[in-house]
Amino acid sequence: MKYISTRGNSPAKNFTEILLGGLAPDGGLYLPEQYPQVTRAELDAWRKLSYADLAFAVLSKFATDIPAADLKAIVTKTYTAEVYSNGRADSNAADITPLRTLEPGVHILELSNGPTLAFKDMAMQLLGNLFEYALAKQHEELNILGATSGDTGSAAEYAMKAKRGIRVFMLSPEGKMSAFQRAQMYSLQDPNIHNIAINGMFDDAQDMVKAVSNDHAFKAKYKIGTVNSINWARVSAHVVYYFKGYFAATKSNDEQVAFSVPSGNFGNICAGHIARMMGLPIGQLILATNENDVLDEFFRTGLYRPRDTKHTYETSSPSMDISKASNFERFVFDLVGRDAAKVREFWGKVDRGGSFDIKESGHWNDLPKFDFASGKSTHQDRLKTIRELWDEYGVMVDTHTADGIKVGLEQRRPNLPLVCLETALPAKFAETIQEALGREPERPAKLAGIEQLPQRCEVMDADLVKLKAYIAANVPQ
Ligand SMILES: *Cc1c(COP(=O)(O)O)cnc(C)c1O
């Protein structure tokens, strides 16, 4: 299996060749040259598999240059009940992604029982093990530099801690994360994890990461890498639970389901699109945004109009406060019939701060065959959904999952079973749960009292010279 760039001007590569990188050299995103197809016989056989065996079956179609025995060992180590037993007390950790049925035909797929209580663990844990494997083979090291406002940084740290050949330098805005988020990250005592609290905002931290990444000499000397959401291995790991969720919500492979997905960077739902292109019988993919509704606008009108940071709102589903969906280019590449010149034209406009309209380009009529629906959810909708689920089913959901459920119920076609993806546990967003329900969210037993653990963190001004000096001092040469 070879991977090509959505912009059409990069040589085709293998899975392991794109594993540690980010964008393709031409600025595009990697995708399989052709989507691997899943036969009916395979679907029938896969229905019975455990999560780890299913992950092996799916990922074998993508990571064709990793020897089967090695890949098997990696996924078996990644998807164990032990790693996914941090979630709800009444969840079956052996299922990895248990399906919770609210009423016939309406389900929640639990993706948040991993170490950091968000679905990002599902892919990041795999990435940690793949990185360690690939670096050992190449006798290489990698220093991951990132900026986080909460979820991504903790998922990356829990995936990379204690991994040979990897160090993490994670910047976060000093005093801006919740006490719980701070405790999750700063209580890690692993020597390869470096938390750096920047006196500034998230954007200041993000700018520092960009500046270091643009210093090519420093980047090469200190082997700096990232774990951002465009990483292909991350997307491919998410494909697995669409299969798992489909099997759990249906009795036979003649049935169809709808998935509803709370979206920010279009990573999670992109994996759903890919699962469907492989032949999984997904009827509808329902995309939910919060008040930052760039993607909803696109699916309703054909206009893709990313906003600048001044017009990106801070909301109570903060992990979706994104106005430039970094994975969206992958879907648009398929939408325009894999016409790389068209993608270059569109993103030429986007990269200059502009927009594009697929109605003008003649691709609006191609959209229905991909069967997406979309909608948006506001703070009031979120509170209402959280209350309704608590009152009617005794189920507490987080703010992002609530956005997905609200839009999913609104947009789904009658008679199509709906699987709502749970992207985080309510314990991560206690303030809004308090506002909605007047009570504290349930906290998984393993994380009780985490705020009282000793914390380790370097506080630093938003000063590039200081950051580089810190990295240099902590990377043996
Ligand atoms: C990252 C995140 C999302 C958005 O996922 P994308 O793949 O970026 O669309 C939604 N909810 C939570 C809780 C997240 O952490």
Average pLDDT taken over every residue:
94
Helical proportion, percent range: 40-55%
Number of helices: 18
* Small-molecule binders: pyridoxal-5'-phosphate
Radius of gyration, in angstroms, nearest whole number: 21 Å
Q: Give the strand line-up of the largest sheet.
A: 3-4-14-9-10-13
Shape: globular
Describe, in plain words, how this protein is organized in 3D.
- By secondary structure, this protein is an alpha/beta fold.
- The protein has a domain at 93-117 and 235-437: Rossmann fold (3-Layer(aba) Sandwich).
- 40% of the residues lie in helices and 15% in strands.
- The protein contains 18 helices and 15 strands.
- The strands form four sheets. A six-stranded mixed beta sheet has the order 3-4-14-9-10-13, sandwiched between helices. It has a five-stranded parallel beta sheet with strand order 8-5-6-7-15, with helices on both faces. A two-stranded antiparallel ribbon has the order 1-2.
- A hairpin with a 2-residue loop joins strand 3 (99-103) and strand 4.
- Helix 15 crosses helix 16 and helix 15 (379-393) crosses helix 17.
- The longest helix has 19 residues, at 120-138.
- The protein is globular.
- The two termini are 36 Å apart.
- The structure holds pyridoxal-5'-phosphate.
- Residues 118, 120, 151, 229, 262-268, 319-320, 400, 423-424 line the site of pyridoxal-5'-phosphate (PLP).
